[in-house]
Design a protein that fits this description.
Layout lengths: L2 H13 L13 H12 L6 H9 L4 E7 L5 H8 L3 E8 L2 H13 L5 E5 L12 E7 L8 H11 E12 L9 H13 L15 H7 L7 H11 E10 L3 H4 L14 H19 L7 E8 L2
Helix pairs in contact: 6-9
This protein binds S-adenosylmethionine.
The site of S-adenosylmethionine has 21 residues, from helix 1 and helix 4.
C-alpha cells in the first residue's frame, strides 16, 4: 500500500463512527426531511426505502457494498430484503471489526466482510446482482479502475447505486457558495452558532488529516455519466447546508428547540433549494442509479 493509502487507513481506523459525526448536515431532523423529500418526494421516506420500492421489487441474491465503514447500509440491505447476502469492503480493519461485531449482535450472518483498497482491488467477473457505494467514491483516486471493476463484476441486468458527495475536490467551496453561506450564518443569533465565519479549508489541511478526502470528488459525476447508463438521478443538494451546518449549534436546531431555531433553519433550507433550482448553485450530493452500458 502507498504511504497515502496507509495514512487514509490510519485515519479511518482511528476515526470510524457508528452513525457519523454529530455535526454532519443530514443528521439534523429538519434537513433530513428535506433531503428525503428531494430524493423520494416525501419527507418521511428515506433513500433506502425509496430505492427498495423503486428498484428492488424482489430480494436479489448477492450484493457488493463498497467502503462499508461500520456497516449500517449492509445491515439495512439484508433487513429490507434488498439483497439476500452482501459482500462488504473497506480499507479500515477497525471499521470492519466493528461492522462485524454489530451484525453479529443483530444476528445477521449474511454479510461477508473484506479489507481492501478500492483503488486497486479486483472483483470476479459477472458476480454481483447489485453494487452499492455510499459516501465512498469521493475517497477514491483511481475512479477509472474502480468503475471498470464495477462494470465487469455486475451481472447482466445488475444495478450500480451510489449516494455520494460530488462537490468541489478537497472542499474548496466556490466564492458564490461561501458568500451565501456566510450571509446566512450572519442571520443566526450567537446562541445558535459556534462559529462566526466559514472559509474553505486549505488543501494541506484536508490532505494532512485524510489524504483520501474528496480527492477527485468534482470528477465523479462526469465519470459516472461516461461509464454507466443512468436510470435515475436524485440530487439532494447540500451546497450551502453541508459547509454551514458544522458552524451551527447542532444541539439547538431541531423542531423542538423553539420557533426561532426552526424558522432560521427552514429559511436556510429554502434559500439553498431556491438557489439550486435557479442554477445559481450546483448540488454537491446525488443519488445515482445505474446499469452497465450495453
Ligand atoms: C465517509 S466514510 C463512509 C462509510 C460508510 N459507507 C457509511 O456510509 O457510513 C468513508 C469510508 O471509506 C473508506 N475508505 C477510504 N478509502 C478507501 C479505499 N481506498 N478503499 C476502501 N475503502 C476506503 C473509509 O475507511 C471509510 O470507512
Amino acid at each position: 500500500m502507498s504511504e497515502k493509502i496507509l495514512r487514509a487507513k490510519a485515519y479511518w481506523d482511528n476515526n470510524y463512527s457508528v452513525d457519523g459525526p454529530d455535526d454532519f448536515w443530514t443528521k439534523n431532523p429538519l434537513i433530513n426531511e428535506y433531503t428525503n423529500r428531494l430524493v423520494s418526494g416525501s419527507p418521511t421516506t428515506d433513500m433506502v426505502t425509496y430505492v427498495k420500492s423503486n428498484y428492488f421489487p424482489s430480494c436479489l441474491p448477492l450484493g457488493l457494498s463498497l467502503g462499508c465503514g461500520t456497516g449500517w447500509l449492509e445491515r439495512l440491505l439484508i433487513a429490507k430484503e434488498i439483497c439476500h447476502s452482501v459482500d462488504a469492503v473497506d480499507l479500515s480493519e477497525n471499521s470492519i471489526e466493528e461492522a462485524s461485531r454489530l451484525s453479529q449482535k443483530e444476528g445477521i450472518s449474511k454479510i461477508n466482510y473484506m479489507v481492501g483498497d478500492l483503488n486497486t482491488m479486483e472483483f470476479p467477473e459477472n458476480r454481483y446482482d447489485a453494487v452499492f457505494a455510499g459516501g465512498i467514491l469521493h475517497h477514491i483516486e483511481n475512479l477509472e479502475h474502480l468503475f471498470a471493476q464495477i462494470r465487469s463484476t455486475l451481472r447482466n441486468d445488475g444495478l450500480f447505486l451510489t449516494a455520494e458527495y460530488i462537490g468541489p475536490s478537497r472542499f474548496q467551496w466556490g466564492k458564490t457558495a461561501l458568500q451565501y453561506i456566510n450571509r446566512i450564518l450572519d442571520i443566526f443569533p450567537p446562541e445558535l452558532k459556534i462559529n462566526d465565519r466559514i472559509a474553505s479549508p486549505t488543501i494541506d489541511e484536508v490532505v494532512s488529516q485524510d489524504p483520501s478526502e474528496a480527492v477527485r470528488s468534482d470528477e465523479i459525476e462526469g465519470l459516472i455519466r461516461k461509464s454507466f447508463h443512468i436510470l435515475d438521478v436524485k440530487y439532494y443538494n447540500g451546497t450551502l447546508l453541508m459547509p454551514l451546518y458544522p458552524a451551527l449549534n447542532a444541539n439547538k436546531l431541531s423542531a423542538h428547540d423553539g420557533p426561532e431555531a426552526e424558522a432560521l433553519l427552514r429559511m436556510a433550507i429554502l434559500i439553498e433549494e431556491a438557489l439550486v433550482k435557479e442554477n445559481v448553485l450546483t448540488p454537491i450530493y446525488g443519488l445515482f442509479v445505474c446499469r452497465n452500458i450495453t
